[in-house]
Amino acid sequence: MEDGRSADVVVVGAGFAGLAAAHELAGAGARVAVAEARDRVGGRVLTRLLPDGTQLDLGGQWVGPSQHEMRELIARYRVPTYPTPEHGRAVVDYEGTLVDALPPEAMALRGELDRLSREVPADAPWTHPRARSWDGTTLASWLAGRTGDPAVARAVGRQTAGGLLSLDAADASLLETLFYLAGGGGLDVLVGFAGGAQAERLVGGPQELAIRMAAALPAGTIRLGAPVRRIEHGPGGAVVHAGGLRLEAAHVIVAIPPVLAGRIEYDPPLPPQRDGLTQRMASGYALKTHAVYQEPFWRARGLSGISFSSAGVLTETVDNTPPGGPSAVLTSFAYGADAHLLRARTPRDRRRAVLDRLGELFGDEARDPVAYVEFDWCAEPWTRGCFSGHLAPGGWTGFGPALRAPAGVLHWAGTETATRWNGYFDGAVQSGRRAAAEILTGAPDGAGGHVPPLPDRSDPGRSGGGPGGSP
Ligand SMILES: Cc1cc2nc3c(=O)[nH]c(=O)nc-3n(C[C@H](O)[C@H](O)[C@H](O)COP(=O)(O)OP(=O)(O)OC[C@H]3O[C@@H](n4cnc5c(N)ncnc54)[C@H](O)[C@@H]3O)c2cc1C
């Protein structure tokens, strides 16, 4: 690997955000180097094939019809998709009783959240007239103030803060919850299967799309095994230290989860508001597990494999059987404190707890799968959370403006910076494209100034120099 090679832009991270940014820049003629810590591209997507060929998506997996950035990429790279199976009834366990649907009071609260979310400007939630109040209120306390029935509050809290943000309702601000609902088009779309965010999966998994995107970049663009630990920056450009590499560039796009962006050493240090933001944007805490069976036995009982529980160790399950199998898969999700407690158990106890719960929901066959697979994204050094990062209560109003504002020549991408489908693949792609556009067309620098656009490649004065600005 060429040491000291200069690029116009260094992109940190080869998840969907970093790959999308690299494509926009390379397509505009800029020279791009992508520094990726792992030995693979894709970030929070990872597809594993069982010995019989059954596809398990250990990270992100679904795309929905209104996720236009992803749909465009899926079409461009010709990755086939298939509908999420929905044969039969969903199971709703409400406080230990199997019911057809959540009680009307819970549905009314969901409706109220949806209505409020439509008021929130997803590109600047801190500007809403009630932003301070909503940012200082947790979803749990808001729900408790709306209903005298703790079971109703628990159910709505688990479905929204849990199922969407992978947080407990006591850890999610009302403003963050409303922002998230706004970006995805409302609760029904976010929790929905056909027509919603869980409508389809990709043949080969979303990792296949990431691999095809990486392969379409100019040879040598992506440097795998290159963890960025230090960035020196100034008006004249930046020096990125990535493993043994020293990469000089005019601009840098940091396209990694904010919690990890905050662990990079910056010289000079980041503006306080930006640093404060990364301190307040911890990741959610979900645990996703897969139980594999010879047959989708639940379908014979008229069940879809989809479940929601208002109490118990698992909040949600889905039928993750690929079309044509060969094996059947029930995938489970635990969130927040439930996921913490599961992680604290031994692997054997954790497996038992998950399978026993599946047995209660779907019948005794669920207790004895032919395989059980779990993957802990919170333990991954280059992710450290699941599904995505969220601003803690008070975070939007105190630090929100620093989410996307460049710090000089440093630009911020990653799904956590998206204004649509924040937390999803689609948001990651949007964020990468937006950060690339900042560089190509110029942008405010976050300190009252303006970062000029990347000079044309044919410009003889373009060569730039070190961080201090000397050519
Ligand atoms: C279990 C799970 C299920 C999910 N389900 C869905 C779903 O069904 N649908 C959906 O749309 N979304 C889903 N998501 C969310 C989705 O995966 C993410 O929103 C998206 O992949 C984020 O892309 P990104 O590029 O912003 O970040 P990442 O994918 O995290 O990419 C960041 C990249 O940067 C690298 N990196 C980190 N630090 C450094 C460093 N210091 N130096 C160099 N490289 C670094 C990482 O290795 C990684 O490759 C899920 C996520 C998880 C974990």
Automatic annotation (TrEMBL):
> Where does the Amine oxidase domain start and stop, copy by copy?
16-440
Region annotation (Disordered) maps to 441-471
Keywords recorded for this protein, A-Z: Oxidoreductase
The cofactors it requires, by name, are: FAD
Asked if the keyword Protein biosynthesis belongs to this entry, the reply reads: no
Bias class Gly residues marks the residues at: 462-471
Q: Return the InterPro entries for the record.
A: Amino_oxidase (IPR002937), FAD/NAD-bd_sf (IPR036188), Flavin_amine_oxidase (IPR001613), Flavin_MAO (IPR050703)
Q: Which Pfam families match?
A: Amino_oxidase (PF01593)
- The superkingdom listed in its UniProt entry is Bacteria
Q: Which family does it belong to?
A: Belongs to the flavin monoamine oxidase family.
- What is the name attached to this protein's record? FAD-dependent oxidoreductase
Organism per entry: Actinomadura nitritigenes
